[in-house]
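Structure ticket #2291
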Amino acid sequence: MPEAQVRGVTINYEIIGTSGPFIALTPGSRRPYAELVDLSKALAAQGYRVLLHDRRNCGASDVAFDGSASEHEVWADDLYELGKQLNALPMVVGGSSAGARLAILYAMRHPDGLSGMLLWRLTGGQHAVDYLANNYYGRFIPLAQEGGMQKVAESDHFQEVIAARPSNREKLLAVKPADFIKVMETWRNAFLESAKLPIVGATEADLRAITAPVCLVSGNDVIHTPATALKASKLLPNAEFHDDVVEKRSDDNLKKDWDRKEWRDAEPALARIFGDFLKRHLKK
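Resolution: structure written out below.
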């Protein structure tokens, strides 16, 4: 796959489709972009080019730890620079869970590079923030304290990024444990501060200031709650809300984790909803 040098970091990316406006989609957690290929092909068949990329510290891109901002802000700035290099701006930006957070930070920081948003499985609430702050950042701190970067390299996530890009092992081991711990603490604290916000990383005022058209699809689990998606849809001035793509569940009967098969099976519906939305709101 092609690669780009983005703000000093090698980013692995792929463009699906040969013509039409650009859409940039990003998966959840720190997973590589491969899970979005089929959905991207369905959108490309409707006349769009879909930009997929592995964020830094994900998939086959470089590991790199920048504590000057939250991780999602760093990712948003990377995507904006990648879009500039590919002459893809302005573009529709979207994603699932962490990918949706990236998209919202992108909209806040780079409105000039945005033409619309496609969001699904938004994250919010105390439970989600506590769980994810530890899963993404907190759990790596004792590894670095007790066993240095070798122990971090042996963790499940970093084993995956080393397997996808072997040079990441040398890069990871070259990081000073104290520097790594400082970045993990910075990113964790930024995440934890979002517990009382409508969604992770954005205030009510931030969301109200996003004027681009937004298509928002609700989740149905305790991390990606329907209440979070509904509240965000009411704050975003130009949002279209869908809560019937996956099984509807009440707030007291949410799934403990997102059902990957359920969302995989829902991709044809997502492609239809997103395609219809883009047809109405995006000029080709």
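Closing remark: The first strand starts at residue 3 and ends at 6.
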